[in-house]
Amino acid sequence: MQELPADPLVGSTVDRRYLVLSKVARGGMSTVYLATDLRLDRNVALKVLHPHLATDSNFLDRLGREAKAAARLSHPHVVGMFDQGNDGPLAYLVMEYIPGHTLRDVLHEHGALPPRLALAYVDTVVEGLGAAHAAGLVHRDVKPENVLIADDGRIKVGDFGLARAVTTTTNTGTLIGTVGYLSPELVDGAPADARSDIYSVGIMLYELLTGHQPFTGELPIRVAMQHLTTPVPPPSAELPGLSPDLDELVRCCTEKDPEARPADGYALLEDLRHIRTTLSDAELDFTAPRLPTAAMGQGRTEAIDRPTGSSSNADHTTLMPVGAGDGSRSQTGSQPTEFIGTGVNHTTVMPAGGLAPAGPAAAQPHAAAHPYAGQLYPPDERSAPVPGPRRRDVKRAARTAEKARIRAAERPLQTLRRGRPRRRGMIWLIMVLVLALLGAGAGWFFGMGPGALAAIPDVQNRTVAQAQALLREQGFGSVSRDVNDETVQQGLVVTSDPGPARQQRRFLPVTLLVSKGPVLYPVPALAGDTLEAATAALRNAKLAVGTVTEQYDEQRAAGIVLSQDPAAKTQQRGATLVNLVVSKGPTPVPVPNVVGQSKEAAQKALTDLGLTTQVAPDTVFDKQIPAGSVVSQNPASGTAAKGSAVTLTVSKGPKMVSVPSYIGKQVDKAVHGLQQLGFEVKVNNILGGFFGTVRDQSPVNKDVPEGSVITLTVV
């Protein structure tokens, strides 16, 4: 199996603040990493945008505005946006890290959910969307993949603003979104608003109840056109016996006309919670055999292009067939909680904020067919529209009135025991007074008391005592937590959680993040290491090599670290420069000229300077240097390191040559012959040397040193 290459970002620090720990996921727009915020000492989700988006300045401006808007939104069911910025070629978003899994994992693991659990999941999603809509934010890409379920049960909606920024970056013919959840107005190119998110919620609710999306097709454009032209079928068409209220809820969310849908998340939340409280336990825990349908195949969710022919690089996801779970899990490795047992005494585990688990579910009638099976709506709803309030309000009012009539019919009109009107009047008076007191107390508690909302004051760069005093003035209590910070002085407050200007109930504590100074790293001991080893040790210690100075050292070889600054074992900030002094080896010494000196004198002169000597094994003749003296040396001059060797060549004196006799011969021939033998010739002429004949020679017929002077007497 071929090994995948390591991600170069893992192990690096982005913007000198976010230490990348591992890669979590990769999509068409970004890669998500688990990182540690070194400033606040917490894990975050670091979303690094792909280069084709990171180099678009217009897109980055829009993304910055969307990120700021998302950062102002603080809600328990919305993933928090912490930071946004650039680090060289990288553009990134920093968001709250949610260890756990997604709602898509729950669908893969369990398929269709009972209404109680499906409504509980949707309730938390809609509550988060309602807060976003109230703040002016539209998600535009609501789907199970963006619903995060933490290991502790918290449910949050993620990725606010990114789809909007990417869509406005692409050309006008390209539509970014997940095709299975796109609202008709987005397919048609109209602007998106809160009602577009409501449509996606309706599709998601249908999928939670049935286990698959309402529209499928071989090509994404076919699925998109069904959103534009085909009504969403009621879930009871596949699940006979499902409550008509759930059909009505899906229908009102997925109306083709946005005006016919709930106005925003909070409007839908009101309808949703009304249905949850009016449905019986049997209706909430309804289960029924699924009918075979062609829509039970594999659903695809991916980015599509509008019919203009332009393309898009958006993410796409292929969903598993319902009930064909392969044991896949989310990127974090967590497993969805098992929420459906078997038999009569099954247990329903609700998500955080959901309804309490119900007792044993009543047996469901499987033989009765749904009254509207095979139809999109009841017959009376396909007639002329009801004037005045919308049809779902009329139906809800009618159902409520019918239940009230039944309860009234079951209540006795006359008691068999004579009552005491005065006592009953007193009891009613007491009850009214108690309720009035409770209402007044609740009004005071949430209006002016500890339950009132107040803005968090700005406590940055203040001492803990000063910050606590400011919080007490606003009615807040506080707790402190130490964090590392690169800029805020030790002992001062870095920020608060929630942050300044955020609204919070006074009875909830505010966390003060107190600086304990920057993250410090111990400096390793580097003396005695090579320069390469010292560089690697500093890099592993989150430090860096500063100035490298070289100097001669009589004990250390060249390239060995002699000293460092700052010293070893001191605590320094990350990326601090450590200056090093590195040896150049022993100090070099000048080599003296010892040619002509005796061998012993030359060796002593060199040894006194810290050099060593070597004598060449062969001696040489030299007519000028006497035997036993130095004829040559290597090196002859310059400098050499202490302990270096100088090679000496010793003379064995001049060469002895036999002097032949040239008496009686012409002087020219005699001079030439003697010079050929290496002698110097001196000529003494008698009577002017008229005949040119050698009469006498000194020395003659004896061995003399090469280069000796031979005297010729010429007549």
Helices and strands in order:
Blueprint: E1 13-14, E2 18-26, E3 30-37, E4 42-49, H1 51-54, H2 57-71, E5 81-87, E6 90-96, E7 100-102, H3 103-110, H4 115-134, E8 147-150, E9 155-157, H5 162-169, E10 174-175, H6 184-187, H7 194-210, H8 220-229, H9 244-253, H10 265-278, H11 281-284, E11 300-302, E12 304-305, E13 316-318, H12 391-410, H13 421-447, E14 453-455, H14 464-473, E15 478-483, E16 493-497, E17 503-505, E18 510-515, E19 520-522, H15 531-540, E20 544-551, E21 561-565, E22 571-573, E23 577-583, E24 588-590, H16 599-608, E25 612-615, E26 630-634, E27 639-641, E28 645-650, E29 656-658, H17 667-676, E30 680-685, E31 694-698, E32 703-705, E33 709-714
Parallel strand pairs: 15-18, 20-23, 25-28, 30-33
Antiparallel strand pairs: 1-2, 2-3, 3-4, 4-6, 5-6, 7-8, 8-9, 10-12, 11-13, 14-17, 16-18, 19-22, 21-23, 24-27, 26-28, 29-32, 31-33
Helix pairs in contact: 2-5, 4-7, 4-10, 7-9, 9-10
What does this structure look like?
The chain is 28% helix and 22% strand. The termini are far apart. The protein is built from 17 helices and 33 strands. The strands form twelve sheets. The protein has a six-stranded antiparallel β-sheet with strand order 1-2-3-4-6-5. Strands 7-8-9 form a three-stranded antiparallel β-sheet. Strands 15-18-16 form a three-stranded mixed β-sheet, covered by helices on one side. It folds into six domains: 13-96, Phosphorylase Kinase, domain 1 (2-Layer Sandwich); 101-360, Transferase(Phosphotransferase), domain 1; 456-515, Trypsin Inhibitor V, Chain A (2-Layer Sandwich); 520-583, Trypsin Inhibitor V, Chain A; 588-650, Trypsin Inhibitor V, Chain A; 656-714, 2-Layer Sandwich (Trypsin Inhibitor V, Chain A), CATH 3.30.10.20. α4 packs antiparallel against α10, α7 (194-210) packs antiparallel against α9 (244-253) and α9 (244-253) runs antiparallel to α10. Residues 165-175, 291-391 and 412-419 have low confidence and may be disordered.
